[in-house]
Amino acid sequence: MGGKAGRAGRVGAAAEWLRARLREGPPAGPTRPEFWRSPLRGPWLTSVLGLVLLAGTAVVFATGLLSYAAYNPDLAAVNDRTPDKGWLGFYLFAWPTRPHWLYRLTQGVHVTLGIMLVPVLLAKLWSVIPKLFAWPPVRSVAHALERLSVLALVGGGLFVFATGVLNIQLEYVFPGSFYPLHLYGAWVFVGALVLHVGTRMGLVARTLRSRRLRDELRTPAARTTAEPPDGTGLMPPRPAAATMSRRGALGMVGLGSLALLAVTVGQSIGGPLRATALLAPRGGEPGAGPNGFPVNRTAAEAGITAADTGPDWRLTVRGGGREVVLARERLLAMPQHTAALPIACVEGWSTPDQEWSGVRLADLAALVGFPPGAAPDVLVESAQRRGSFGSAALRANQVADPWSLLALRVNGAELSADHGYPARIIVPANPGVHNTKWVTRLTFGDPA
Amino acid sequence: MRTLRAWYGAGPTHLLLTVCSFAVAGYAGLRLLGGDVVGLLLWTVGAALLHDLVLVPLYTAADRAVRALDPRRDASWINHVRVPAFVSAVLFVVWSPLILGLSGEVYAAKTGLDPAAFAPRWLLITAALFAASAAVLAARSLIARHRAARGRPPARPGA
């Protein structure tokens, strides 16, 4: 009995001690407001950076959701990298085939703009870092929840940016498959962002009205002073003299974004500009000639052997209870069509239109009895032995497009092994990995 | 209303927004944590801690070290170090896996491209950034000296 009372007394004393410390004020170092010295920190700079980041994030999030829809994950299990998505797939729709450069544009913007936002994100976090050490650490229930939400915002935000940036560099070190991590991470980030924007938008609007951007951009370092104290906890109470103006700070961040754009965007434009993508993963062409454009996965890496693609290669077309087996000569004897279409990868790189020729998917559906205009979905299977996307399902609207081909040639030459010889899928506006290479089997009407 | 403020610390709109935000983040978060829970917490919380407690102190210390070389207030040459260093650093932060060749073998096998190309390019870009910054500083100093010689008030460079 006495022990219990003693313990309660000790807990009470500890709580009293803690309360006293909290009342006394910040203990030391970064928890003291005087620790922070930069006169640039303040609501104005944070608001400008936050607004840029918000606008950019909105575009990157929207294009990310579009990319998710472009995989048609609701069509078949083989397309769905995130089977436990639940309501997060609420908006999915049949991904269109026109304009044929649609995925090239949306995914190029998603990756390139996401990369350009990295300096803005880092600057924004720099501008609010004193808040991390704010004292007392928790002022109320609302404040505690906000801080928890900020942890999800910062942790989730850094996580989404990091997984994206690592994935495009083929550095698969993150804890799991890229697709669920990046998709669910993005929703955690956006969920936390709702509260952050909701609680800060009023302050941002007031702050931006308080100082005119034009005046601020005309103020040199010599006349740059800290903003008047306003209780946001962003400003240093004892600011050092400015060594850089707000104009200079914003310019430096903007220059960082432009530098990233300059060494990256060439990989999404292609042609002679590809060589300007000095640090981006697809700044080089793997070869010259008709097949010289970039390859997502080489034949060797996919485990394709000479026997897989030699004279014994056959294409099996199934559907409606029928089956047709075709040698390559039979395919070449069918009506050949051409389509000028790009390869556009989820990693953000893409090629300009290449001249593909081969057999229309709709014509192959007709071989097993589906009349023109009634072609169903199709499951495409590859000889690929290693890596993901060995099979993919295409929706009826994709099969029906006259530009959707089982391509046999590109730019007037035979397909190279790396581009999918003997035959590959090419569909307008389709994500690159769904343009299956080294195709061995098409199953119409049952894309399970 | 007053009770809510006293107990919660904010108004009802804040409370509703908070519930909405946590519900969305929680719905996605449960799916995220459906995989490797320890790995994920390490990555998300670790990313925030690594940024806040390692990266920020590191670059702040580097900045203060450079500034300590010249304590004059109008030591505007400092920005001619800061700007190229910042640009070079953000290029490195984004493209470090390629620059350091972390995924070199996978990269070469998958793309058929040369993974060794990136480190020298980044070094050359860094050299070019500092060279350009030095050229601008030299030009500004020349203009300032020229103006001073003509008896006009000098425009302070580096603002």
UniProtKB/TrEMBL annotation, chain A:
Lineage: Bacteria, Bacillati, Actinomycetota, Actinomycetes, Streptosporangiales
Name by which UniProt lists this protein: Molybdopterin-dependent oxidoreductase-like protein
Sorted UniProt keywords: Membrane, Transmembrane, Transmembrane helix
UniProt entry tagged with the keyword Calcium: no
Regions that span the bilayer: 44-71, 108-129, 150-170, 182-203, 248-269
Region annotation (Disordered) ranges: 216-236
Oxidoreductase molybdopterin-binding domain residues: 311-445
UniProt xrefs under InterPro entries: OxRdtase_Mopterin-bd_dom, OxRdtase_Mopterin-bd_sf
Top-rank lineage group of the source organism: Bacteria
Pfam family, one: Oxidored_molyb
UniProtKB/TrEMBL annotation, chain B:
Keywords, ordered alphabetically: Membrane, Transmembrane, Transmembrane helix
Annotated TM spans: 7-28, 40-62, 83-102, 122-143
Name this polypeptide is given: Uncharacterized protein
